[in-house]
Structure prediction request, 124 residues.
Amino acid sequence: MSGDIYFKKETKQMLRVLNGTIEKFPNPVLQVSQQKLQLQQFLKINHLPEIPIYTLVVFVSRKGILHIEPNDHFHLRNVITLQEFIFKYQKLHEILTHTVWKDTDLALAKELFLREHTSEKKLI
Prediction:
């Protein structure tokens, strides 16, 4: 995404200013939070053990300039650039020191994900 990208603390909105035009986009932090909730519910419905799920929005385009207010912890905590990703990944890797699922859980999850994956199904 190119242009100036603004995250608004009060409204939880993401705006882009490009060539003098302001566009509103769905907030990717809220989107990934909803996806996390859907995954948690899917696992629960299918009797799979809970797993730690971490959410993050990574901006990979070098053509976009991110603008997040210094006191906007909601977005600062969840939105990073591609250059920051390796450091976030390293921290998570250090935190996750034990195996959560058994091989049988992984096999079941794989089967369920493949079977249930369609663009039309909704979990919520």
Q: What stands out?
A: The mean pLDDT is 90. The CA atoms of residues 1 and 61 lie 6 Å apart.
